[in-house]
Amino acid sequence: xxxxxxxxxxxxxxxxxxxxxxxxxxxxxxxxxxxxxxxxxxxxxxxxxxxxxxxxxxxxxxxxxxxxxxxxxxxxxxxxxxxxxxxxxxxxxxxxxxxxxxxxxxxxxxxxxxxxxxxxxxxxxxxxxxxxxxxxxxxxxxxxxxxxxxxxxxxxxxxxxxxxxxxxxxxxxxxxxxxxxxxxxxxxxxxxxxxxxxxxxxxxxxxxxxxxxxx
Length: 215
What we know:
alpha/beta, Rossmann fold, 8-stranded mixed β-sheet, about 30% helix
């Protein structure tokens, strides 16, 4: 699992969120992309302008859909937990799930749909193993609030939080191949040891494991 640093954003390009920039740098020009939980469409808009992708989106909130449509993006209202089954296998080159996995009811099934729909799946999520989270739990005995987890326990949309180590364990159990991994904190891509406690956000590029050929 190589740890890569994304190239610098050209000065003329309007910057997007750091994890979205990492994701955008992974996607090849003129690819077919499905962005699940696309929010206001920032990633799709960037990819359309600078990589000429054929981009589609699914967003749960009506406000997000309205924002996307107002920018000319092809986005429909839908739920990652229930609506991905309607997409055919290998319909897209990339299926993207950014900062949404932890808000799904059945993360494992959603991830299975991602790697079925896309030839590659790209997933980012807040890392619950970050040292600030650990400190809040160990020192104060309370659910943490951080830059990537800003909600209080009773009003958070996040119902399935995980660490980078948890995610990698699930990938190993299900046979998904992690092609690349990035660990982000304070707007920077991290390297070196101890990423599970140093990273605020994990970003992964997944592919299905090659099918076995039986003799």
